[in-house]
Structure formats: structure tokens, C-alpha cells
Amino acid sequence: MTENKTQANAQDVDDFIASVEPEKRRDEARILLDLFRKVTGWEPVMWRPAIVGFGQYHYKYETGREGDFFATGFSPRKAKLSIYVMPGYTDYSEILSRLGKHGMGKSCLYINKLADIDLDVLGELIAAGVRDLSKKYPVKSS
Q1: What one-character-per-residue DSSP string does 64-103 give?
Q2: Distance in angstroms (rounded) separating the CA atoms of residues 72 and 44
Q3: Which domains does the chain have, with CATH numbers?
Q4: Which of 45, 72, 105, 128 has a Cα at 20 to 30 A from 90?
């Protein structure tokens, strides 16, 4: 079986954030870093070259595929902020309706800029996602 491409690494989170361009996106990354720390109580770990992850869980599918993945996190990409907050199997439409302007993938949100959303509602969504994920898999600090 192939190994999961998304792996934790030893890259320094603060160094990564300091390298984010443009400066406005770097400032938003620092805001998200503080928010995720506050909501989860966990310290961040880098996953792949550009994902800041919080917490970790071990999954095992019926197919036998298994691995480790971050519980929640974000990536300050140039085009949009990618925010990984939802386990992908729970309906968060009520919270999302209050969040503000965003796009969605299966387990992540895409946000053009933090000014488009309500950060308190994002914090609520992060907490709900981690809570619901921990009902399916044991989640621990990274």
C-alpha cells in the first residue's frame, strides 16, 4: 500500500509563517495560528511543505489503508486560505451560514481573506470539527 503523501515534518512553523508572501497573507497566517492554538490548546506542527496542522489522529479504513493525519489546520496559500476544519461527514451548515464568504471542499474551507469571515464563528467551527472527529477517532496533541 502507498504511504500517505501528507506527513508531519520537522520544519519550524514560525519560520514557515515568516516566509509566507505577500505580507498581508503572512499577517493572516499569524492570526490563524493564534486562533487555532487558542481553540485547540495544541501546538502546531508542519505537514507537507505548507500545511500548519494541530492535533493528530490515526485512521484505519475497512480497505486496510491506515495512517496518521492532522486533526485540523490551515495553509496560507497565495490565492486563498485553505482551512482544514471539518471531518467531512458532519453537517455544519448552521455554523457555515454564519461564517461569511467562503468556498468549500470535502473537508476544507477556502477563504479569500480573513476580513470576509467572522473569526469567532471560525473558532466555533474548528471546535466542532475537532469534537466530531474525536467521536470517530482518538485525537491527541501533535
Answers
A1: S-EEEEEEEEEEE-SS-EEEE---SSS--HHHHHHHBS-E
A2: 10
A3: 13-133 (3.90.1150.200)
A4: 45
